[in-house]
């Protein structure tokens, strides 16, 4: 009969699926159970949220691939059992197997492609935030403080993430990073982005992508800091496209820059209005408490 072989098939596949599902979980539990002698918490590095999401996607990818491989092995077991199955039961077994198997394989293949696409996009964003973060960290030698991956709780269930915050002697800057791919057919002159104060014109067309998010982040940062230190603080919005040449033909609510142009914006000039040392200390104290939550 066909059913004993089906039972054998289940007994062969289920342990493989359980092993793949539990492997990463066992490793994570083991790592969390280990005791580190250092109790101090660290500031969040650039792109930390995306790094965590990449790890989760990697786990999903491994589980999906193992499931696909296990399902792909089912026909081999069926064909091995065919000689002992007689008459119409052979066609019933083959037909039933493929009716069930093909949709399952297609579903796993589609999931794998979706995970692959998400991972590629998250990886691009992560690398962009790391590049911008590396550039901004150099500003600490100029008297600035830099914070990455800042989460602000506007209200229960509503959280805003700001890629980078720079506290300069002359102001506070909320920086949003947008990383875009350069296609192989782009010519060097097409590596330019134009900003007229209202619209960002990318090499493949104009849009306002990222402008609203950068402006919103700056407003929420201003509101949060003002409430925490009981003094009005106004944060400036910055949108950066690492790897592209950005040419501004107008001025708007948001400054759109290449990541290397941020330095000139945030560092004080001869005629810049500087914040008081007391206000800078209060701002940095609040941001340090908010961002110093990385466990060793």
Description:
- The chain is an alpha/beta fold.
- It has two domains: 2-130, no CATH class; 143-294, no CATH class.
- The protein is built from seven helices and eleven strands.
- The chain has helices at residues 2-33, 48-72, 74-81, 88-137, 211-229, 262-266, 277-291; strands at residues 42-43, 145-155, 158-168, 171-177, 192-195, 200-202, 205-207, 235-240, 245-248, 254-257, 292-294.
- The strands form three sheets. Strands 2-3-4-8-10 form a five-stranded mixed sheet, with helices on both faces. A four-stranded mixed sheet has the order 7-6-5-9, with no helix packed on it. The chain has a two-stranded antiparallel sheet with strand order 1-11.
- The longest helix has 50 residues, at 88-137.
- It is elongated, with a radius of gyration of 27 Å.
- The chain starts with a helix and ends with a strand.
Radius of gyration: 27 Å
Q: Low-confidence parts lasting 5 or more residues at pLDDT below 50?
A: none
- Quote the distance from N terminus to C terminus: 57 Å
Treating each run of at least 4 consecutive H or I residues as one helix, how many helices?
A: 7
- Per DSSP E runs of 2 or more residues, the count of β-strands stands at 11
Largest sheet: spatial strand order: 2-3-4-8-10
What best-fitting shape do the alpha-carbon axes yield? elongated
Please write the string of helix (H) and strand (E) elements.
Answer: HEHHHEEEEEEHEEEHHE
For the largest beta-sheet, the strand count, sense and barrel status come to: 5 strands, mixed
Quick recap:
By secondary structure, this protein is of the alpha/beta class.
């Amino acid at each position: 009969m066909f059913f004993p072989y089906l039972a054998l098939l289940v007994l062969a596949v289920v342990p493989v699926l359980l092993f793949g599902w539990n492997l990463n979980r066992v490793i994570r539990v083991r790592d969390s159970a280990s005791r580190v002698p250092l109790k101090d918490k660290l500031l969040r590095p650039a792109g930390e949220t995306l790094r965590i999401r990449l790890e989760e996607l990697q786990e999903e990818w491994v589980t999906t691939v193992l499931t696909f491989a296990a399902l792909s092995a089912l026909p081999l077991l069926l064909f091995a059992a065919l000689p002992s199955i007689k008459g119409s039961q052979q066609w019933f077994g083959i037909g039933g197997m493929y009716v069930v198997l093909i949709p399952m394989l297609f579903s796993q293949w589609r999931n794998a492609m979706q995970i692959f696409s998400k991972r590629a996009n998250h990886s691009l964003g992560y690398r962009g935030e790391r590049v911008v973060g590396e550039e901004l960290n150099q500003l600490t030698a100029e008297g600035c403080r830099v914070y990455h991956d800042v989460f602000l709780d506007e209200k229960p269930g509503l959280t805003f993430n700001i890629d980078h915050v720079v506290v300069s002697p002359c102001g506070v800057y909320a920086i949003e990073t947008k990383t875009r791919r350069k296609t192989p057919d782009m010519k060097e002159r097409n590596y330019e982005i134009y900003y007229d104060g209202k619209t960002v014109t990318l090499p493949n067309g104009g849009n306002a992508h990222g402008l609203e998010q950068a402006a919103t982040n700056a407003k929420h940062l201003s509101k949060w800091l003002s409430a925490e230190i009981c003094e009005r603080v106004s944060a400036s919005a910055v949108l950066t496209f690492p790897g592209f040449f950005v040419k501004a033909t107008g001025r708007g609510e948001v400054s759109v820059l290449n990541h290397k142009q941020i330095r000139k914006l945030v560092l004080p000039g001869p005629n810049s209005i500087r914040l008081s040392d007391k206000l800078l200390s209060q701002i940095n104290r609040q941001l340090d408490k908010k961002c110093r939550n990385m466990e060793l």
